[in-house]
């Protein structure tokens, strides 16, 4: 059976990975919005 300390380390890693995925998802979402905005923005003369 896994030690209690091992479980805590794995839980901490799990939560860190979830946090990175959430931050990465937010950054990609903002980049896609910027890409769409600049792709659809009219060109000034």
TrEMBL record:
Record-linked SUPFAM superfamilies: Bacterial aa3 type cytochrome c oxidase subunit IV (SSF81469)
Chain ranges of the Cytochrome c oxidase subunit IV bacterial aa3 type domain: 2-38
Keywords for this protein: Membrane, Transmembrane, Transmembrane helix
Membrane spanning stretches: 17-40
UniProt-recorded name of the protein: Aa3-type cytochrome c oxidase subunit IV
Species assigned in the record: Sphingomonas immobilis
Lineage: Bacteria, Pseudomonadati, Pseudomonadota, Alphaproteobacteria, Sphingomonadales
């Amino acid at each position: 059976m896994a030690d209690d300390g091992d479980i805590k380390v794995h839980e901490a890693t799990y939560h860190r990975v979830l946090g990175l995925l959430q931050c990465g998802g937010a950054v990609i979402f903002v980049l896609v919005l910027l890409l769409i905005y600049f792709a659809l923005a009219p060109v000034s003369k």
